[in-house]
């Protein structure tokens, strides 16, 4: 597999396809050696209409922030307009710590090459699994997506855990 197939050229993050391969590998590992994992799904929204230059700049800044605030074993990826971060060997409490840290650090103004600034609203959905044979990449992604939708409903700069909304449904 070429570098272009593994990495998004604009951000340096893993592509959706390569992320899927890594995610399935981690799921296989947790089946054999039960270990927790967390998936964060991150969405951004801009405070003002942005042009393509600002949008590219925002993606680059967000990718840089992810690289500087994640462990080497964590797996950040571009996922359409959203971002995914897989946190292997991380329980729900650890995932919440990472998610909240990212939320705080991503809430700032960013400069563009022309000297203007813009800010982003951040929403994070989190799904955690304790590990074992019932772990499923598809189910964990669906849970993180549902948590992200709830975070969007709650407002700007929020993070929601799937466990939180699953508890509310009971």
Query: Nearest-angstrom radius of gyration?
Result: 16 Å
Mean pLDDT across the residues is 89
Number of strands: 6
- The domain count comes to 1
Q: What kind of sheet is the major sheet?
A: 6 strands, mixed
CATH names the topology as Alpha-Beta Plaits
**What string, H for helix and E for strand, traces the elements in order?**
HHEHEEHEEHEH
Q: Could you say what the CATH architecture is?
A: 2-Layer Sandwich
What does this structure look like?
The protein is an alpha+beta fold. It has helices at 3-6, 16-32, 52-69, 92-106, 137-154, 162-169, and strands at residues 37-46, 75-79, 82-88, 109-111, 117-129, 158-161. Strand 4 (109-111) and strand 5 form a beta hairpin. The longest helix is centred in the middle third of the chain and has 18 residues, at 52-69. The relative contact order is 0.19. The model has no long low-confidence stretch (mean pLDDT 89).
Layout of helices and strands:
Layout: H1 3-6, H2 16-32, E1 37-46, H3 52-69, E2 75-79, E3 82-88, H4 92-106, E4 109-111, E5 117-129, H5 137-154, E6 158-161, H6 162-169
Parallel strand pairs: 5-6
Antiparallel strand pairs: 1-3, 1-5, 2-3, 4-5
Helix pairs in contact: 3-4
Which descriptors apply to this entry?
single chain; 170 residues; alpha+beta; Alpha-Beta Plaits; 6-stranded mixed β-sheet; 6 strands
